[in-house]
What does this fold into?
Amino acid sequence: MLERHTPGSGASTRNAGFLMRGMAENYKSALDNLGHDTARNIWHWSEENLLGLKAEGVDKLPSFRPTPSCLLAFEQDEADALVESARLLSEDGFGALLVESGTDSAWASGLPLLGLVNPADATINPADLISLLVAKLGSIVVGDQEVHAIEAADGQRPCIVRTATLEVHCGSVLVCTNADAGRLYPSLAGVVRPNRGQMLALRARGARLDYAYYANHGHEYIRQTPDGTIVAGGCRKQHAEDERTSDDRTSDPVQRDIEAFARGILDQPIEIVARWAGTMGFSPDGVPLVGPITPEQSVWFCGGFTGHGMSLAYRTAAGVVSAMLDGIDSDPLISAFALSRVWAARGDSAPSKTS
Ligand SMILES: Cc1cc2nc3c(=O)[nH]c(=O)nc-3n(C[C@H](O)[C@H](O)[C@H](O)COP(=O)(O)OP(=O)(O)OC[C@H]3O[C@@H](n4cnc5c(N)ncnc54)[C@H](O)[C@@H]3O)c2cc1C
It folds into this structure.
C-alpha cells in the first residue's frame, strides 16, 4: 500500500465516524432513486461492513460506541418519507424504529417531528479505526510515496507502479485515491468528483445526545463523543458550488452554518474547540465505483463513496480484492457498483493510459 502522505490522511480520518446502515438519505428515497434491488443490497452490505470491522476488532477500541443512528425530520414531508421508509425497511426484513419524542438535547430543542432509528449502528473516532487497520497491515503500508505513474501489465510483464523513489512490480494494482483518481487516470476526473466536507467540534455545557443524528435529508449531522465533546458537520447543500473543490481548508460561510445548525439543535450556547475539512469523492449517482480501468484488467479502481465510505468501504474493498486477485465474480456488489455503468452512460470506454 503506497500512500502519498500518512495513511488515512485523506477523508478516512477526517470524517464524522458514523458507522451507519445504508446511506445518509432515507430508505424510501434510496428505493426511488436506485431501484429496489440496489438499495436493499446497499443496506445489507453496510450491515456486513460493520460486522467485518467488528471482526477486525474495532468494537474493542476506546472510542467505539454502539450508538444507534437516527434520521430526524424537521418538516412534514420528510416525516412522511421516514414513516414510509420504516414500513419498507420492515417489509425487507430490516429492524428500524420510529420515535416521536426523546429526552436528550435534540428533542428538547423542539425541532424534530419524527426520527427513524437504526438500532444496530455504531460510532467511532475514525483515526482510531485507521490506526488499528494500519497496525494490522504492518510494514506493507508505506507512507510519503506519491504514485505518479502506473504501467499496466501487457501480458509479458507485471504492472509497474512508480513513485519518486520506488518502482514496485506487481501482478495487479487497486487504485484507491478517492477524488484524486483523475490525476492518475484523466478519464476518471469527470467520474469521481471532489466535494469538500466540513466539520467542527464543540462543547455545550449539559448537552446530551443519545443518538448519532442525521437531519435535513442527511445534509447535516451531529453526535456526541465519549468524552462529551460534540461533533457536527454538513451544510454543503447551501454552498454546493463552492464546496465542489479538493481544497481541504475550512471556509467561513459553511462553518457559520454548521454552528447555527448545532446551536439550533442543542438549543444552548456552544464553544467551538476545533474545525476541519476533508475531500470526498462523489460518484454521479451516489453509489460507489469499482472495476477494471485498463483493458487488460490488471488495474482496478475502488472509490466514489460519496460520503459513505465508513459505512461501505470495508465491505466493498473485500469484494473488489477478491474479484481482482482471485477472479471471483459471484459477488453481486461488483456488478451493482461497476464503474462500467458510468462509462456506458457517457458512451465511453475504459481509459487505457496513465497521465
Ligand atoms: C467531513 C467528512 C465527514 C464524513 N463523515 C462520514 C461518516 O460519518 N460516515 C461515513 O460512512 N462516511 C463519512 N465520510 C466519507 C468517508 O470519510 C469517505 O467516504 C472515505 O473515507 C473514503 O475513503 P477512501 O479511502 O476512498 O478515500 P481517502 O480516505 O481520502 O483516501 C485516499 C488516499 O489516497 C491518497 N492518495 C491520493 N493520490 C495518491 C497518489 N497519487 N499516490 C498515493 N496516494 C495517493 C490520499 O493521500 C488519501 O490518503 C465523511 C467524509 C468527510 C470529508
